[in-house]
Amino acid sequence: MPLLFRQELMRHAQYLPLEQILFFAGDLPKSVCQTKVLSTTVNPATVIINAQKLSAKATMNNPTMIINQIVIRGKQVLGFPIRHNKRTSERLRNELLILDFQELRLVNEMNIKGKKRSNIDETILLRSYELR
Question: Residue 41 — φ and ψ, nearest 5°?
Answer without folding.
Answer: -140, 160
